[in-house]
Amino acid sequence: MKIEAVDFFYLSMPEVTTEGDGSQDALLVRVVAGGHIGWGECEASPLVSIAAFVCPMSHGACRPVAASVLGQSVDGPEDIQRIAGQIELDSMDLLQASHTWSGVEIALWDLLGKSREEPVWKLLGYKRAYRKLPYASQLFGETAEETYRLASAARSQNFRAVKFGWGPIGRFDLKTDNDHFQAAREGLGADTLLMVDVGQIFRHDVEAAAARLPMLEKVGTLWLEEPFHTSALDAYAALSRRGTLKLAGGEGAHNFYMARHLIDYGNVGFIQIDTGRIGGIGPAKCVADYAVSKGVTFVNHTFTSHLALSASLQPYAGLRSDEICEYPLTPKPLAVELTSNHLRRDTEGYVNVPDAPGLGVEISRAAVRRYLVEVVIKAKNRVLFDSGGLNI
Amino acid sequence: MKIEAVDFFYLSMPEVTTEGDGSQDALLVRVVAGGHIGWGECEASPLVSIAAFVCPMSHGACRPVAASVLGQSVDGPEDIQRIAGQIELDSMDLLQASHTWSGVEIALWDLLGKSREEPVWKLLGYKRAYRKLPYASQLFGETAEETYRLASAARSQNFRAVKFGWGPIGRFDLKTDNDHFQAAREGLGADTLLMVDVGQIFRHDVEAAAARLPMLEKVGTLWLEEPFHTSALDAYAALSRRGTLKLAGGEGAHNFYMARHLIDYGNVGFIQIDTGRIGGIGPAKCVADYAVSKGVTFVNHTFTSHLALSASLQPYAGLRSDEICEYPLTPKPLAVELTSNHLRRDTEGYVNVPDAPGLGVEISRAAVRRYLVEVVIKAKNRVLFDSGGLNI
Fold first, then answer.
1. Residues in A touching B290 (Cβ below 8 Å)
2. How far is A27 from chain B (nearest CA, A)?
3. Quick check: B18 and A64 in contact, CB under 8 A?
């Protein structure tokens, strides 16, 4: 099958705020080859990721992503890997390339699965997919009281695991943070797993992060996520030796190596991979394999639609013991409406990885039309991208 | 001084080819604050880097670079560091941000130096700047004969050090590579330093790279540069144990951490930093300090104009023993004409880091007009960038 077309759809809520909610916009990718259509999603700035697909070449190692994709043949997983390898060399100096390629790569897996009438996890070599225990992923409240209410609400929605992230943590004093941690635990009750994500707030300050460890350990936190910059490996390693709490990180990894370094040098206990950033499902599967070999737990990272959710689950669908999965609790309407089917929790609260061909998620064309924003990019007297020409 | 304006100029040769020559286009940055003008250069895809400055916000941790820069005050180096820290958090999910910020950061140092009437290296804390021994940086020939001619030509231009890069190396058989290495040495004679850059061609294949080590050692190569992907730290470390040849790398580092990892985990002997990619002069200086503490030699990476060359020299201008510097031998006319003064070699073949305020390099407005290409970016019904509105 020859890749005939790759189209990008920049979708956005009418208003985008500074809250740490990644579901406020989306970059949907559609790939057409051999009479099949595949869908993927990039987890990154839509405009910049589109630009990385269509930009003029700067030199042999700074070519647009399109140059390695359009016209290529895809008849099996090895073709996706071949294209990825070509981008690694030919777009070496184009930093945004891996974010752009991620969505295309996911769409190629979806397309390949549809053409073979098999779910993607089977193409990855898994014999079966195990259901995952979703944790409700949400932001801390502005106040401890609000955090308590959010925790209670998640509990009442029957979540057995809840993650709180970002918000005020690390921005004020220790007492504020402690109040939020305690409020979260009180709202959840003793029998719900609690994870905490601080969104790199401590940068590389081990002492600042370490000051929160006793509080987090006291409320029985399963992991502390992203205390530092994704690449602050030394800080991760140092903090991991300061207490019993396991660290989690990896969502910022934009290639396999970065995830591996967090395991090898950063000593994380949970490696969290966003297929929409790391270069897609292929490298994420490599991370899952590597994590297994090192006794580290693989967890998906996702914060947008159920298309992205399904893509994020494929790399570790067949790993029974890596049970926990991220599950956005209150995504924006755009992210909900974007797919016409959803990965609902079953009666026991688990999420089943789709069994249908490809990613098993259908795109709502009406939603795409509803949230599509105009993008026009011209350079060197050529129109490189015009959303007005998109056929939905 | 308040940052009033940041303008980007996408410059390009009329024709851009797939050769590995980074001087075929350029992204020039002009910053205006407090009645002063500073100039910088990004080393990356111009269109994508512009998009990362002007893109709509996706969420609180995926804001355009402009949001952290425009309107900020810059009265000292600590302000540049503060802005860099804000971008690290607020543009965390915008991968291209560090490439974009690099050029702005360089322009801010230039502006700060001009306002204080001091060269940038003095602002960095150096008491004096030592002249550097430039190596002529050029690509391997298509054939060994051409490589020989190029080597002879560089020698006749009185270069005491020459680096050959990319081209056919690693793409064919061992004999081809060996012929090129020998031709380079023969053309240079015994008394010229020879370095070899293979442009990540072996990805992470230690054996393929190791097969070239005896050949490279035989012709007395000073370093082998970028045998692998910037992040293939394990491969670097493994190869460094396979022979006596020192490894060099780091041009792909887009933050301080990545460079540090190449030293700590990759065991490189030379760390090569492009200020136009790593986030500018500030983080590059941090790498220089760290390299000194680890006995690793700092080398600039640069392949475009003498504005970029001057910026790349500042971080280690005061390190006497780190003497070697990259010096593009045959840049395209755009890169030559872009500056109205140049860092010429002195009679002994050395390059002096400018003593003039800022980066000590003047921009030729005529050249900017000559090579400027049209860029228009619209999104969400707003014109985010229009090169037609640039005042040169």
1. none
2. 10
3. no
Would you place residue B83 in the very low, low, confident or very high pLDDT band (cuts 50, 70, 90)?
A: very high
User: What crossing angle do the helices spanning B174-188 and B144-156 adopt, rounded to 10°?
Assistant: 20
Q: At what angle do helices A306-313 and A97-116 cross, to 10 degrees?
A: 80
ipTM for the whole complex: 0.96
Q: Find chain B residues with C-beta within 8 A of A376's C-beta.
A: 376-379
B21 touching A (Cβ < 8 Å): yes
Give the domains, in start order, of chain B with CATH numbers.
3-119+364-387 (3.30.390.10), 123-337 (3.20.20.120)
Instruction: Answer whether A374 sits within 8 Å of B378, measured CB to CB.
Output: yes
Model confidence at B195, pLDDT cuts 50, 70, 90, reads very high
Inter-chain residue contact B255 with A229, CB threshold 8 Å:
yes
Task: For residues B216 and A140, give the distance between their C-alpha atoms in angstroms, rounded to a whole number.
Answer: 57
Tell me whether A372 touches chain B (CB under 8 Å): no
C-beta separation of A105 from A80 below 8 A: yes
Nearest CA in chain A to B49: A48
Mention every residue, 6+ apart, whose C-beta is less than 8 A from residue B221.
B181, B194, B195, B196, B245
Closest Cβ opposite residue B199 in set A12, A61, A203 = A61
Optimal mutation site among B41, B48, B90, interface A, most CBs of chain A within 10 A: B48
Chain A residues within an 8 Å CB radius of B51:
45, 47-48, 51, 377
Q: pLDDT value at position B329?
A: 84
Q: Write down the pTM of the prediction.
A: 0.97
Task: Give the residue ranges of chain A where pLDDT is below 70.
Answer: none
- Residue A321 forms contact with B (CB below 8 Å): no
What confidence tens digit (pLDDT) does each residue in A34-71 have? Answer: 999 999 999 989 999 999 999 999 999 999 999 999 99
Q: 104-163 in B: which are within 8 Å (CB) of A?
A: none
The mean pLDDT value of chain B amounts to 97
Residues B57-74: tens digit of each pLDDT: 999 999 999 999 999 999
d(CA A224, CA A188): 17
**Residue labelled with tokens 């073949």:** B349
